[in-house]
Amino acid sequence: MLRTKALIIGGGPAGATAARFLAGSGAEAILVERDLSYVKPCGGGIPSTALEELGIPEEKVTKRKITKMRIVSPKGESVEVVMKGGHLCITERGEFDSHLREAAKDKGASILEAEFIRFNDIGKNIISTVRKKSTGEEITIKSDYVVAADGITSRTASGVKSPNCGSLYTISAYIKPTPSPSSPPTRGGEIALVPSPLMGEGDDACEFWFGSNHASNFYSWIFPSQGYSSIGTGSKDAKELSTFLDRFIKRRFGVPLKDFAPLNFSKKTRAFRIPLWEGNLFNIKNILFAGDVAGMVMPITYEGIYYAMKSGEFAARSIIEGKPDIYKKLWKSRFKTRFLLMSKIRNYLFKDDENIEKFVALHKRPEVQEIAMRLWLKKEAGSGSLISYLNFFRHFLKI
Ligand SMILES: Cc1cc2nc3c(=O)[nH]c(=O)nc-3n(C[C@H](O)[C@H](O)[C@H](O)COP(=O)(O)OP(=O)(O)OC[C@H]3O[C@@H](n4cnc5c(N)ncnc54)[C@H](O)[C@@H]3O)c2cc1C
Questions:
Q1: 131 with 10, same domain?
Q2: Is residue 85 part of a domain?
Q3: Is residue 78 part of a domain?
Q4: What number does the ligand 1 atom closest to the CA of 44 have?
Q5: pTM of the predicted protein model
Q6: 76 lies in a domain?
Q7: Which residue has the least CA distance to atom 1 on ligand 1?
Q8: Ligand 1 contact via 396 beta carbon (within 6 Å)
Q9: What is the pLDDT of residues 28-78, one digit of tens each?
Q10: In which domain, by residue range, is 24 found?
Q11: Does the C-beta of 305 come closer than 6 Å to ligand 1?
């Protein structure tokens, strides 16, 4: 049996960050990740300010720097927002997660490629069974604390019968359009997207397209990266996903998905769930739940990487102080107002396409753009910014 102060289950952004902070403070930490070569389906977009706050070197993890954002309404009204005070870093999730785990290892955390199987005992100590990937051997680990960071498909949460958080479904793909007589030639292997009135080659803009015809309770997106783009859409009904993606691609590019060549590192499309935040899971005794397993994804934007990393940091700080109950307090004092506000706006926004039209129109106002960007890019922005943003909605949209 192995013995450690903290066992971290899951080596994504939440778990790897928890391991880094724990080991950095001198605490014994073992991180188990079932597959070190796993690449989570994800756009990989992280605000530069978030990387800075968490001490992650931007130049090491960024594939492409995005400085503009376009929002397109169901009727085709488009707003372009130039990011100020930061930008969006597009990372590749396999590499990004590996970087975070390496940083944890450098601080002294042990990384084990093993799958969490079950909790044998949850008492003063926690006894867990994990299965090593290389040999299939089962190992028991005795720890004072567990950071459960095994994502939305969590086995830890079901192991303690914790409250389930709701979720939406996404479908995404990495695309590199097939050159065809109608598309421009590639230059030096660079990506050449099918021509569109909105997006040119080398355009450093991410795009968010709204419309219930191709996204429900969600948006469809394009995040350009290095030599490819992440595209995708979301729905509350898994059965709609493929149709929605086809419709979005037709709307955006005028051609079907089959016209795009798959990239050699990825399957053509991948479906995956994304949590809906409910704020009801923090810790059960000495098991602290961080990231997607606890639903910590921002409503509307569905940004989860930053919040996963911060929850990992807060979980680690609580363990270091020996007070697992302060985890909830740390999280709530920093993020609760923001999450509640965004949930409220989401409920308004996704009621129907008319509301989305009004939402997009509202973001044509420079003062609304400024506040929205401040909230997205400057995570420490105080409640003043939140209240101003909500006031715009109250005033103009009467919500
Ligand atoms: C299509 C899509 C696009 C997205 N785009 C963005 C984006 O652009 N920007 C953004 O901020 N967020 C985005 N998100 C959300 C973001 O991906 C998640 O919020 C984030 O990955 C959560 O991190 P995590 O560490 O909690 O969980 P995960 O990243 O899911 O990590 C969990 C880890 O646990 C491991 N694991 C699972 N079970 C076990 C087990 N039994 N034993 C051991 N290990 C286990 C997994 O292999 C995985 O490595 C997107 C989500 C989706 C679905």
A1: yes
A2: no
A3: no
A4: 8
A5: 0.93
A6: no
A7: 42
A8: no
A9: 999 999 999 999 999 999 999 999 999 999 999 999 999 999 999 999 999
A10: 2-56+93-165+276-336
A11: yes
